[in-house]
Amino acid sequence: CTRLQGGRKCGEQAGWRCPRGRHDSGICEPCLKREQSGLTGRRSDRSSTDIYDGVVQHETSRKEGQVYILSDVSSRKPPSVAPNWRTSYRLKCAGLVAVVRLDASHEALAPDTEVQWAEIVPVSMKEGSDQDFRCRSEGRMALRLLTRADLGMQQEITTAPLDVGMRIAVIDLRVFVPEVISVLSTIADPRLAAQLEQIPFLDQLIGRRPDIAPPFVPGSGPGDAIAHSIRHSEIDTIRRLPPQAQAALSSEIVDLMKDANLYGTQLEAFSGALLN
Fold first, then answer.
1. Residue 158's pLDDT band (boundaries 50, 70, 90)?
2. What phi and psi, each to the nearest 5 degrees, are found at residue 235?
3. What pTM does this model have?
């Protein structure tokens, strides 16, 4: 475990490691629980900056459904520099958030706490989402709770209304409802497993095969990276090429890449696409 405890590294056996291949950070279970407890605990320096407390000011009915206007919205760990709400990612309209009912402001969130999903909508329909940053800067925002109409494959979804005066916590997930809800609905579809089995490269797609070659060799130049990807490619058309044709293809791609000036993460993504 690479977490610092009392000014030094913990040193316990790490149970989780950073998913970024070039990072060697790891964390053990006790440290992970402490970090999670701090992020979801009462307002402190260890709290998550993406958890906000607020009060349900009033409820209104719109064409998109029941909308709840919140007031006194504030982060449990405000940034050291006040955000520019016009350009900030924080609490953007159409964002997906989790809503937790509280007995008191800044109450710690327990692991078994019930969560409701909601979409951030403009406080004022007249001003729209473009001007909603003014309300956020004043600690006001509006939410629409998601229903079965949003998650069609979800068999059970809690849509119990929020009461005026209720204190709640809002967890900003930093993703947009139109982008992720359709994906979540697909994942919840019981037919998904059978549909996935029809994909020829399913094992590579979900990482089931441990012998898949890495998409990029750290420190390699463009020529080595492309040659490596073509040699280990799972694309049937490339696999059928004789070695001489594969070498010629690699050389032609490298020439094209020089004109495109691909490097770093762009090179990594391009060479990875040649694998499968």
1. low
2. -75, 120
3. 0.66
